[in-house]
């Protein structure tokens, strides 16, 4: 049975964690960086940079692309978000307190992205790379399919 997700609490927890992590690391989570992070956490789907620019701009003030990209770079550097290469978008990291290799599951029906940080998957990739004499520069693992909710809806329809 699927549990009910309290998304407001999810966003609040993510922002509180970000505040704590940045304070502990001695880096500044500026109001704009916090706004960008909050916009990314509004859903568990990939958010594109130009969508962020639109969402953060108002009738009397347009947020410039370099400003948003600098905020995204900071959030990536701090491990607060992940870049989804295949969608050219970003999603919040649900375990930013420690550096990790993650695997992302992307639902092709609803767009929901969930994170898996299973170290055994990373170790298996490292072993195979070593076996092949391959020097890993960047590791991006994105898996596409159907989330549990969409599978259930598919069966109902």
Mean of residue pLDDT values: 90
Q: Number of helical runs? A: 6
Distance between the termini: 19 Å
Tell me the number of strands.
Answer: 5
Question: What is the 3D shape?
Answer: globular
Tell me the strand percentage band: 5-15%
Category from helices, strands and their pairing: alpha+beta
Biggest pleated-sheet summary: 3 strands, mixed
Low-pLDDT residue spans: none
Helical residues, percent: 40-55%
Roughly how many Å is the radius of gyration? Answer: 17 Å
The arrangement of helices and strands along the chain is: HHHHEEEEHEH
Lateral arrangement of strands in the main beta sheet: 4-3-5
Task: Describe what is shown at a glance.
With 157 residues, this protein is an alpha+beta fold.
Q: Can you characterise this structure?
A:
Strands 4-3-5 form a 3-stranded mixed β-sheet, with no helix packed on it. A two-stranded antiparallel sheet has the order 1-2. Helix 2 crosses helix 4 (65-77). The longest helix is centred in the N-terminal third of the chain and has 19 residues, at 7-25. Strand 3 and strand 4 (113-116) form a beta hairpin. Helix content is 46%, strand content 14%. It has 157 residues and is α+β, with helices and mostly antiparallel strands.
């Amino acid at each position: 049975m699927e549990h009910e997700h309290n998304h407001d609490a999810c966003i609040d927890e993510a922002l509180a964690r970000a505040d704590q992590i940045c304070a502990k690391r001695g880096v500044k989570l500026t109001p704009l960086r916090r706004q960008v992070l909050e916009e990314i956490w509004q859903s568990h789907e990939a958010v594109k940079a130009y969508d962020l620019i639109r969402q953060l701009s108002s009738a009397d003030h347009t947020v410039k692309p370099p400003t948003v990209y600098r905020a995204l770079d900071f959030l990536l550097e701090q491990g607060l978000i992940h870049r989804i290469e295949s969608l050219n978008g970003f999603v919040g990291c649900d375990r930013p307190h420690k550096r990790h290799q993650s695997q992302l599951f992307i639902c092709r029906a609803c767009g929901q992205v969930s994170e898996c940080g299973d170290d055994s998957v990373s170790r298996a990739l490292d072993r195979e790379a070593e076996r092949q004499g391959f020097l890993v520069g960047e590791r991006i693992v994105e898996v596409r399919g159907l989330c549990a909710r969409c599978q259930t809806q598919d069966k109902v329809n």
